[in-house]
C-alpha cells in the first residue's frame, strides 16, 4: 500500500487525506500547529492517522508521496529533506486532478482571480452545467472529487499551489494579471513569481486555451520570451484583438472560433475598470464552453460582488464605508483607490510583503484626505505617504481605526479599508479583518 503523507491539516490537507484514503493510500496527516476541531472530526470519521504540534520525521520521510499545504514554503528544512530523498512533494490540485476526467478551468493572477472564479462559476451554473468551484476558494478540490465528481471544475489557483504541480493541466487557463505580490516567497524577484504563475500553462497543448490580460506588460513580455503551446485568447481595454475580448464604444466585443458577440459594459453589476476585465475573462470562458449569449449577459447583470472586495457596508451621516479587506497587495489597493469618486479616508496596513507603494502616490495625492494605519509595524507606510497626505494616524485595533476614520470623514466622503498588506499581524485572515471592520462600522 502506497504511503501518502500530508503536511498541514487545513481545508486542502484534510480534503486530500479523504481522497487519498478513498483511493487506497495509507494516509498520515501531520500539522506543526493545531488542527481545528471540524477537521479532526473528519479525520476521525475516515479513520485517518494524524498528529498536531509536531512533525514526526521518521514517519514523514517514509512517504511515497507528500502533499504540502500551500502555506508551507519550499525552504522549510523538512521539505528540503523530502526533495533530497527524491520523494515527490506536490500540491492538492496536482493530487486531485489525477482522479477526475472533468474539464478543468484554472484561474490565477495577482488580483481579480476570486471574482473571475466566482463569476465564471455563476455563468456556467446559469448555463445548466454540472460545475464545482474549488481551489483557493471555498471547499477543497480533492474533497469535491472524493464526494461527487462534476463535469466541470472552476479552480482558483494561487502561485503556491502552482509551485507544486507536475502534470496538472487545465483545459482553459485564465491569467488575470501579474503584479508584485508574495515576493517574500520568491527571493524578492518578480521573474520568479511570474514564472510560478505561468506554470498554469506549462502542460497545456495546442488543444487548450490561455486567456490573459493583454494590457499587462509583465504578461506580454513573458509570453514573447517564453511562448506557450496553448491557443491565446487575450482581453484588452486599450487595443483590438482578433481572438479574445476588447472594448469598443463601451461595448465588450468577444471573438472565439470566428463567432463574435457584443454586450454593453453598463450591464455588468460590478463597478470599476478591473471588473470589466474580470467580465471579459469569464465571458471568454463561457464562449469557449458554448453557453448562450443571453445567459452570459443575464449572469453578468445579476452577479453579486465577492465579500470583502469593494463591499459597501453602510452609509452613516452621508459617509460611505467600504470593505476591501481582500486587497492584500498594492495593485488591489490601486484599483480600489482608482474607483473612488469622493474624498477618501484610507485605512491601510498589515504585514508588508515587499511592497513598492510608489504607483499609489498620484492617486493618494488626488483622492485621499487622511490615512489611518492599522498594523504592528507602520514605519514603511508612514515613510512613504507622510509627505503625500497631511493627516496620518496609527492605530492598533480595527475599532480604533474605524473610530478615527469616523472623526476625519465629512459628509459625502468615503471611508475605505483597502490594506495593501496581508492580515496576519492582527487578524486570523483577510475575512476576519473585513468582518471586524464591518462590525466596528455597525457599532459607530
From TrEMBL:
Enzymatic reactions: UDP-N-acetyl-alpha-D-muramoyl-L-alanine + D-glutamate + ATP = UDP-N-acetyl-alpha-D-muramoyl-L-alanyl-D-glutamate + ADP + phosphate + H(+)
Residues bound to ATP: 109-115
Location of the Mur ligase C-terminal domain: 308-421
A biological process term (GO) from this entry: cell division
Alphabetical keyword list: ATP-binding, Cell cycle, Cell division, Cell shape, Cell wall biogenesis/degradation, Cytoplasm, Ligase, Nucleotide-binding, Peptidoglycan synthesis
Residue ranges of domain Mur ligase central in the record: 107-285
InterPro entries: Mur-like_cat_sf (IPR036565), Mur_ligase_C (IPR004101), Mur_ligase_C_dom_sf (IPR036615), Mur_ligase_cen (IPR013221), MurD (IPR005762)
Pfam families xref list: Mur_ligase_C (PF02875), Mur_ligase_M (PF08245), MurD_N (PF21377)
GO MF annotation: an example: UDP-N-acetylmuramoylalanine-D-glutamate ligase activity
EC identifiers of the protein: 6.3.2.9
SUPFAM superfamilies (alphabetical): MurCD N-terminal domain, MurD-like peptide ligases, catalytic domain, MurD-like peptide ligases, peptide-binding domain
Pathway: Cell wall biogenesis; peptidoglycan biosynthesis
Enzyme class: ligase
Function: Cell wall formation. Catalyzes the addition of glutamate to the nucleotide precursor UDP-N-acetylmuramoyl-L-alanine (UMA).
Annotated family: Belongs to the MurCDEF family.
Stated name of the protein: UDP-N-acetylmuramoylalanine--D-glutamate ligase
Native species: Spongiivirga citrea
Amino acid at each position: 500500500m502506497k504511503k501518502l503523507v500530508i503536511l498541514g491539516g487545513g481545508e486542502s490537507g484534510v480534503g486530500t487525506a479523504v481522497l487519498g484514503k478513498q483511493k487506497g493510500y495509507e494516509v498520515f496527516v501531520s500539522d506543526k500547529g493545531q488542527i481545528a476541531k471540524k477537521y479532526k472530526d473528519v479525520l476521525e470519521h475516515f479513520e485517518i492517522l494524524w498528529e498536531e504540534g509536531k512533525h514526526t520525521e521518521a514517519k514523514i520521510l517514509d512517504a511515497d508521496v507528500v502533499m504540502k499545504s500551500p502555506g508551507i514554503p519550499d525552504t522549510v528544512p523538512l521539505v528540503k529533506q523530502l526533495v533530497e530523498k527524491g520523494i515527490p512533494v506536490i500540491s492538492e490540485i496536482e493530487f486531485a486532478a489525477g482522479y477526475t476526467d472533468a474539464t478543468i478551468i484554472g484561474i490565477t493572477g495577482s488580483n481579480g482571480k476570486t471574482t473571475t472564479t466566482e463569476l465564471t462559476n455563476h455563468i456556467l451554473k446559469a448555463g445548466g452545467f454540472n460545475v464545482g468551484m474549488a481551489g483557493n476558494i471555498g471547499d477543497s478540490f480533492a474533497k469535491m472529487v472524493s464526494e461527487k465528481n462534476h463535469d466541470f471544475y472552476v479552480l482558483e489557483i494561487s502561485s503556491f499551489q502552482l509551485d507544486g504541480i507536475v502534470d496538472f493541466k487545465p483545459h482553459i487557463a485564465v491569467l488575470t494579471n501579474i503584479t508584485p505580490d508574495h515576493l517574500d516567497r520568491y527571493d524578492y524577484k518578480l521573474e520568479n513569481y511570474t514564472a510560478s504563475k505561468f506554470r498554469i500553462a506549462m502542460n497545456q497543448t495546442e488543444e487548450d486555451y490561455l486567456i490573459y490580460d493583454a494590457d499587462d506588460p509583465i504578461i506580454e513580455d513573458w509570453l514573447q520570451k517564453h511562448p506557450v503551446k496553448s491557443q491565446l485568447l487575450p482581453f484588452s481595454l486599450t487595443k483590438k484583438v482578433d481572438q479574445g475580448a476588447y472594448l469598443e464604444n463601451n461595448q465588450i466585443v468577444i471573438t472565439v472560433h470566428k463567432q463574435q458577440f457584443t454586450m454593453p459594459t453598463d450591464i455588468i453589476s460590478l463597478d470599476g475598470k478591473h471588473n470589466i476585465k474580470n467580465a471579459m475573462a469569464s465571458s471568454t470562458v463561457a464562449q469557449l464552453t458554448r453557453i448562450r449569449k443571453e445567459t452570459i449577459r443575464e449572469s453578468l447583470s445579476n452577479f453579486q460582488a465577492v465579500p470583502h472586495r469593494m463591499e459597501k457596508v453602510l452609509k452613516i451621516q452621508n459617509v460611505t464605508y467600504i470593505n476591501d479587506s481582500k486587497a492584500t497587495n498594492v495593485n488591489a489597493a490601486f484599483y480600489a483607490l482608482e474607483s473612488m469618486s469622493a474624498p477618501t479616508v484610507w485605512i491601510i496596513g498589515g504585514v508588508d510583503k515587499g511592497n513598492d507603494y510608489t504607483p499609489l502616490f498620484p492617486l493618494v495625492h488626488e483622492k485621499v484626505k487622511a490615512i489611518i494605519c492599522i498594523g504592528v509595524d507602520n514605519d514603511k507606510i508612514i515613510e512613504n505617504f507622510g509627505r503625500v497626505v497631511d493627516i496620518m494616524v496609527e492605530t492598533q485595533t480595527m475599532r480604533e481605526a474605524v473610530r478615527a476614520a469616523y472623526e476625519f470623514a465629512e459628509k459625502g466622503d468615503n471611508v475605505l479599508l483597502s490594506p495593501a498588506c496581508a492580515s496576519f499581524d492582527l487578524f486570523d485572515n483577510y475575512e476576519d479583518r473585513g468582518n471586524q471592520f464591518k462590525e466596528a462600522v455597525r457599532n459607530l
